């Protein structure tokens, strides 16, 4: 590689401070350029330039580096490889395949400086060329040149022209079985004045968002299989969600449930600075879970990619893992897929930023975090969204980001939580007191919110016309319960009017039998929208009938809550046990029929006993 006069390919280490390394003789280097540090060629990235000195963030353990060690420039930013072979794989924070490293090195730990290709160079893929592609035709970034059969879920992995390539097709490789390095199309570029080979894979810098045709507002609900999320605080495909909560509140279980049962077509799960056993659990569970494709059960791991940067891996690589994850998600979005990206947890990334900022000697802001923390978080979350992808044919794809936040001691005034809440549109706040009472998911319905409900009203109205009104009523019941709790604590439950007692009774059913959900049971591990709506409708029907009976009675024949509990005990018991009685894998028609019968029985019980 030729360097201009006064620039050098190799600089030298001047100082080492933890993951930060300062190198001299680095004139001409660029910000975020990838470098190889020391005799072991550790991976690093330039994060600050001062004269001919470069401040390098090392993504591997720096023990043993000494003054005078070589620092080799690459003239490229930190990139990921995008092509077939990403799904059903596990990478570290800089997209090194962990399974391949384990096979080659025969070690449980990643050796320092190990250099293996991100995508398997030997594996062959069945490639089908796009029949509309012609020699001499004009093509540009995002155009589909062919498809590859990757697995049963990804039966047509689209091969895209890299976003920065445009020109006329000079040659086309016919359909066949090839490795990812095979040149499929040659493009004669007027812009670059040369012939550019387009392979089955391409590289893209992780810090640069991939270009899109147009950004659209979200319109389809993100169905998660969790009742509290789908019914009370729904999100959209292409939305941004935050799950802040103290240690042990169930952030990881919610993230994993979303990965398993949401209506997204593929999942990128980033374990950023969390414990290794959580990633091991994902690796163990996901291959055992399956989805039916063409009458055949297929493991959902085939639509999942894991980026593991656990707590015992280098701190600085946490930042790289977040950017690697979002770039992989954008690649599948550009293929027209709806992608969910789980980041567990962004607090660990913020702690890495704090450490590097301290090493750089920057002025600290609140709690020692850098002043640019909120800008970094915003930069990450704004890469979510529903878009029209670049290129032809026209296609829409989305990236939904669900970021777990781990504030110390569950304190939501923590700078990371505060900065995140200023950006995201959905807040699922976990409550330590609920978790201690074993109420899971421990989402606090009084502090959580969603800003997508206006957008989703149309979506839900088309699926379930009654749903929006029932959701509002359920939230009003829960709010009224909160207001009545103070009175109950002061003067006791007996001082309440009968309708207030009904509010408390209904709120108890909503809390304990609707919002609570056990992810480890066969009947409640997921809850399809039909069952969620059915359960909510039976609770609201009971509430409406009870309220009508109380309001329409007076004097000696006044209907009391005690009478309702006595005469309607059977239907009330059926409402409570409906989550056990209805199998989540049942057909939607069977679920709807069950709840329709239950609602009619509730009305009959009230009309026969209270006229």
Describe the structure.
With 611 residues, this protein is α+β, with helices and mostly antiparallel strands. The chain is 34% helix and 24% strand. The protein contains 16 helices and 30 strands. The strands form seven sheets. Strands 8, 18, 21, 22, 25, 26, 27, 28, 29 and 30 form a ten-stranded mixed beta sheet that branches. Strands 1-2-5-4-3-6 form a six-stranded antiparallel barrel. Strand 3 and strand 4 form a beta hairpin. It is globular and about 100 Å long.
> Helicity range of the residues?
25-40%
The whole-angstrom Rg is 28 Å
How many β strands by DSSP? 30
Uncertain residue ranges: none
Q: What structural category characterises the helix and strand content?
A: alpha+beta
| Average residue-wise pLDDT | 92
Strand content: 15-25%
């Amino acid at each position: 590689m030729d360097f201009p006069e006064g620039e050098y390919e190799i600089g030298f280490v001047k100082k080492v401070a933890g993951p930060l390394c300062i190198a001299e003789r680095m004139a001409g280097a660029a910000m975020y350029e990838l470098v190889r540090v020391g005799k072991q060629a550790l991976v690093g990235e330039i994060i600050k330039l001062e004269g001919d000195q470069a401040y390098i963030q090392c993504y591997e353990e720096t023990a043993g580096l000494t003054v005078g060690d070589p620092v080799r420039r690459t003239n490229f930013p930190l990139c990921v490889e995008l092509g077939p072979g990403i799904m059903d794989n596990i990478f570290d924070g800089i997209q090194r395949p962990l399974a391949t490293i384990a096979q080659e090195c025969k070690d449980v730990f990643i050796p320092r400086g190990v250099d293996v290709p991100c995508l398997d160079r030997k594996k062959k893929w069945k490639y089908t060329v796009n029949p509309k592609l012609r020699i001499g035709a004009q093509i540009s970034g995002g155009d589909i040149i062919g498809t590859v059969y990757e697995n049963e879920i990804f039966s047509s992995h689209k091969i895209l022209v890299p976003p920065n390539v445009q020109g006329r097709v000079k040659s086309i490789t016919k359909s066949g079985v090839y490795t990812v390095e095979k040149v499929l199309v040659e493009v004669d570029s007027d812009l670059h004045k040369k012939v550019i080979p387009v392979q089955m894979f391409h590289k893209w810098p992780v810090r640069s968002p991939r270009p899109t045709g147009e950004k659209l507002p979200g319109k389809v609900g993100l169905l998660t299989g969790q009742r509290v999320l789908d019914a009370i605080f729904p999100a959209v495909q292409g939305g941004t969600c935050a799950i802040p909560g103290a240690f042990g509140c169930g952030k990881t279980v919610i993230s994993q449930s979303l990965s398993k049962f949401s209506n997204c077509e593929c999942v990128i799960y980033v374990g950023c600075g969390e414990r290794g056993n959580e990633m091991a659990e994902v690796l163990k569970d996901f291959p055992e879970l399956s989805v039916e494709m063409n009458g055949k059960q297929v493991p959902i791991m085939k639509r999942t990619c894991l980026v593991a940067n656990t707590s015992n891996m280098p701190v600085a690589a946490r930042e790289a893992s977040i950017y690697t994850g979002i770039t992989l998600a954008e690649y599948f979005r550009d293929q027209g897929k709806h992608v969910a990206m789980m980041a567990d947890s962004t607090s660990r990334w913020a702690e890495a930023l704090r450490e590097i900022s301290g090493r750089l000697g920057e002025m600290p802001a609140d709690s020692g975090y850098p002043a640019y923390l909120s800008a970094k978080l915003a930069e990450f979350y704004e890469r979510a969204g529903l878009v029209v992808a670049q290129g032809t044919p026209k296609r829409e794809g989305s990236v939904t980001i669900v970021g777990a936040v781990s504030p110390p001691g569950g304190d939501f005034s923590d700078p990371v939580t505060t900065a995140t809440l200023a950006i995201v549109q959905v807040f699922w706040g976990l409550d330590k007191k609920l978790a201690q009472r074993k109420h899971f998911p421990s989402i606090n319905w009084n502090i959580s919110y969603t800003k997508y409900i206006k957008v989703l009203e149309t979506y839900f109205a088309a699926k379930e016309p009654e749903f929006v009104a029932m959701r509002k009523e359920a939230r009003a019941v829960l709010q009224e319960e909160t207001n009545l709790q103070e009175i109950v604590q002061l003067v006791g439950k007996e001082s309440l009017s009968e309708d207030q007692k009904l509010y408390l009774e209904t709120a108890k059913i909503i809390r304990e039998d609707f919002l609570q959900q056990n992810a480890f049971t066969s009947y409640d591990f997921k809850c399809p929208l039909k069952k969620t709506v059915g359960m909510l409708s039976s609770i609201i029907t009971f509430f409406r009938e009870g309220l009508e009976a109380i309001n329409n009675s007076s004097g000696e024949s006044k209907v009391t809550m005690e009478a309702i509990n006595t005469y309607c005990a059977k239907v009330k018991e059926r409402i409570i046990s409906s989550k056990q009685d209805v199998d989540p894998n049942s057909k939607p028609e069977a679920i709807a029929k069950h709840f329709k019968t239950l609602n009619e029985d509730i009305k009959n019980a009230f009309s026969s006993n209270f006229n």
